[in-house]
Amino acid sequence: MDITFEAQKTLQRLLAELDFSQLTPQKKSILIQRLTNGFQALFNQLFPLYGQRFDLHYHLKVLLQSVIDFHKKKCPAQIKDKSALWFESNQNVGIAVYVDLLADDLVSLIEKIPYFEALGINYVHLMPLYLSPEGNSDGGYAISDYRTVSPKLGTNKDLKDLASALHKKGIRMVLDFVFNHTSDEHRWAQAAKAGDQEYQDYYYFMDEQDAMEYNQTVREIFPQIRRGSFTYLPELDRHVWTTFNSFQWDLNYSNPAVFVAVVEEMLHLILNGCDVLRLDALAFVWKEKGTVCENLPKAHNLIKAFKACLDIAAPHVVFKSEAIVHPDDVNKYIATDECTLSYNPLMMALLWESLATRQTNLLYQSLERSFQIPEHTTWVNYLRCHDDIGWLWDDTISDRLGIDGIGHRHFLNQFYTGQFAGSFAAGVPFQENPVNGDCRVCGTLASLAGVENAIAADDPLLLDHAIKRIRVLNGINFAMPGIPLLYQGDDLGVLNNNDYLKDPTKVDDSRWVHRKKLTKADFTLAEDINTPQGKIAQLIREMIQIRKANDIFAAKSFELISLGSEHLFAFKRQSGDNVLLVIANISEHHVPITPTLDGLIGNKTAMNLLNNERIDLSSFSLIEPLDLLWLTKA
């Protein structure tokens, strides 16, 4: 079969059937041109998924009519920066926030825009803000209605007003696209519960035997909450697929009607003014019996089909992948025809691993293999987020270094939850598996780095070390290629908060330990340079200012540099004759540097951008404990 010919023939048939009558001649012309350019890519991805369906033509017609109808509606004013490659600029610095934890609602969040500007933020990720179940909603990731903002946060108009206000200040807005599952309160799920066969086909309903067979190969995500990946519904005497929580029903993308319906929801999100869509839990979206049901080839077909729709309907919007899986699988989602941006969970996890071990071998070896991604795609680098820390690395690399993967992960869990002698961290375990003892770690940046324990011990040296760890982590994060992303409160040095233990809807989810409601007192504390919080806030602000003032932080060239010590981490970025050499000591001791540095920079003297100090490289051979250098030619 000549798929190119079939795609062209199908498009011509569809164009004759579609209704463009409510579009202006200009909008119609633009859209037909985008369809002409982009339909082949869409057809190429949908055909492997639904080519055997007799009703594929019908679903394509509904899909494209939805795209046409989308163009009849008005979006908030777009950001002035129309650069297609905006994400490659050193001006980008992001922050992820919960609307009601940073402010009270969407209207009051507009009042926080001056804070974003002062900090240097131009990329704001709003955590899920749509209608979701009362009580436990997995932090908003159980969505009951993609088209209705939670009344606690405001209205759709408030969200559009926020988007406009952000865009006026040159700040991009990021929203979550939760497309693996809905809440069991979504109208599709409610219809399915009521016996509507059309909507039962939107989900995975099966008998106990089928559920048991699937459970043989899929992994448990929240084993403390529910064993297996299914929830029994006594009113239907059926099991429904629930990868995460029993109230989050996985969508059945083997049904093309589901794909079309979710594209329509995606377009509605864009109507609210977003510039980036974060694809939540994208590794789980395609299921096949006898597999782990993660990272399957057809998951990529599906995501590329969504991207093809995005390029036709709203090419100014880009996808960001959230794939917290094996590093090799993370990289497979990153492409100009799939996800332009991607979280970098490997670097995040291994920076914490390096701090615990005071060794950088695993970090070096892993980044050397997995950091490079296609041209015109970008990492989103982060130290903490709304979620837990999982110790994701390739065990073939740790094996080669003589590290037992299982044992080392157990050590890291013990270390960061304060159960290892000498640990500086005050983290909290999350979802410990009672069978294999595996778990993940929660906590704020400051508490995990040692600030909380140092304050409790009233020990100035421990506190100094903790703040320096935060400086080292942020110094690496801000200097790596990609978009650095802060998590709310970490910019203020906020510590763990145990108030969630008093809330019955949150007590079983330790991630709330780092989801604190920020108060005026938190901001006031961070303004006082004599407090640990003030020192942390100041160093982060200064690093952001330096990054945005120096184009070298946009350099595409990146090279890991070995300096002869397992306690050091270094890399070089270069653009023409301009060079940035970043050196970090992740130990609490002086560390000698074996090679001379002048050859790496191409000059006898260097300037440390972090303090404007000139350094004679020929005599520079020792780096201070937990120190960080951003070196350029003097």
Question: Class of the domain at 344-549 in CATH?
Answer: Alpha Beta
Helix percentage range:
25-40%
Under the CATH scheme, the architecture of the domain at 344-549 is Alpha-Beta Barrel
Under CATH, the topology of the domain at 344-549 is which?
A: TIM Barrel
Strand content: 15-25%
The tally of helices reads 23
Distance between the termini: 62 Å
User: By CATH's scheme, which homologous superfamily of the domain at 344-549 applies?
Assistant: Glycosidases
Kindly report the spatial arrangement of strands forming the biggest sheet.
1-2-5-11-12-13-14-17
Largest sheet: 8 strands, parallel, barrel
Return residue spans where pLDDT drops below 50 for at least 5 consecutive residues. Answer: none
Protein name: Amylosucrase
Organism: Marinomonas spartinae
EC number: 2.4.1.4
Keywords: Glycosyltransferase, Transferase
Task: List its salient traits.
single chain, 634 residues, alpha/beta, TIM Barrel, Immunoglobulin-like, eight-stranded parallel β-barrel, six-stranded antiparallel sheet, 23 helices, globular, Amylosucrase, GH13_cat_dom
Structure write-up:
It is an enzyme of class 2 (transferase). Its EC number is 2.4.1.4. Helix 2 packs antiparallel against helix 12 (297-313), helix 14 runs antiparallel to helix 15 and helix 20 (460-479) packs parallel to helix 22. With 634 residues, this protein is an alpha/beta fold. The chain is built from 23 helices and 25 strands. Among the domains are: 344-549, TIM Barrel (Alpha-Beta Barrel), CATH 3.20.20; 553-633, Immunoglobulin-like, CATH 2.60.40.1180. The mean pLDDT is 96. The strands form seven sheets. It has an eight-stranded parallel barrel, surrounded by four helices. The protein has a six-stranded antiparallel sheet with strand order 18-19-20-25-22-23. Helices cover 39% and strands 16% of the residues.
